[in-house]
């Protein structure tokens, strides 16, 4: 049975239960298998040699998730080819592709955790009550070590974009 963390986060002030470990700076990023589309999957190793900013959102079709993904898409332009920004949600790959097209988001890679929520469990962001992934941000270096983690304590709040981008830039210097 996966570890459960209660009192770790809220949704509109109501407690939610997160499933999985609380990852910390210095931990090795867990591998994952996420859907790029219905026939193609991506793993952590597909992004080997890159700095990875992993932006986790519950659903692209909500206001804060929309804003978070657009913001990191904008930031991607100034980060260069050594950085990949991954947006992970449980939205179906069809919905992710539709949203990106409508929003003009073209610099982030959207990946779906819809099949088995394995990413959510491995990264400690699966919300037991909703089967969605909790808003969070991870920065992972080229050797797959986590150098920045932000688990949001309130699901409806924005992450600290500046701190996340600064963590990526620190790895570029």
Task: Describe the structure concisely for a colleague.
The chain is 24% helix and 31% strand. It is α+β, with helices and mostly antiparallel strands.
Q: What structural class do helix, strand and pairing data support?
A: alpha+beta
**First CA to last CA: what distance?**
41 Å
Assembly state of the chains shown? single chain
DSSP strand count: 11
Name the average pLDDT.
95
Main sheet overview:
5 strands, mixed
- Gross geometry: globular
Poorly predicted segments: none
Task: Provide the gyration radius in Å.
Answer: 15 Å
Supply the number of helical segments.
Answer: 4
The helix content, as a percent range, equals: 10-25%
- Report strand %: 25-35%
The H/E string reads EEEEEHEHEHEEEEH
Strand order of the largest sheet: 7-6-5-10-11
Describe the structure.
Helix content is 24%, strand content 31%. It has helices spanning 63-76, 93-103, 118-122, 161-172, and strands spanning 4-11, 14-19, 33-35, 41-43, 51-56, 83-89, 108-112, 126-127, 132-133, 136-140, 146-151. The strands form three sheets. A five-stranded mixed sheet has the order 7-6-5-10-11.
Layout of helices and strands, plus pairs?
Blueprint: E1 4-11, E2 14-19, E3 33-35, E4 41-43, E5 51-56, H1 63-76, E6 83-89, H2 93-103, E7 108-112, H3 118-122, E8 126-127, E9 132-133, E10 136-140, E11 146-151, H4 161-172
Parallel strand pairs: 5-6, 6-7
Antiparallel strand pairs: 1-2, 2-8, 3-4, 5-10, 8-9, 10-11
């Amino acid at each position: 049975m996966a570890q459960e963390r209660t009192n770790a986060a809220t949704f509109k002030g109501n407690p939610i239960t997160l499933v999985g470990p609380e990852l910390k700076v210095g931990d090795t990023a867990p591998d994952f298998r996420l859907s790029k589309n219905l026939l193609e999957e991506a793993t952590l190793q597909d992004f080997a040699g890159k700095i990875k900013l992993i932006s986790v959102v519950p659903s692209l079709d909500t206001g804060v998730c929309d804003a978070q993904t657009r913001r990191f898409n904008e930031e991607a332009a100034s980060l260069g080819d050594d950085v990949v920004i991954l947006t992970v949600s449980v939205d179906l790959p069809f919905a992710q592709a539709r949203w990106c097209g409508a929003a003009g988001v073209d610099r982030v890679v959207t990946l779906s955790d819809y099949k088995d929520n394995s990413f959510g469990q491995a990264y400690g962001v699966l919300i037991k009550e909703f089967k969605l992934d909790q808003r969070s941000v991870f920065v992972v270096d080229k050797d797959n070590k986590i150098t920045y983690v932000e688990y949001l304590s309130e699901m409806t709040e924005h992450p600290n974009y500046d701190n996340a981008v600064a963590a990526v830039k620190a790895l570029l210097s």
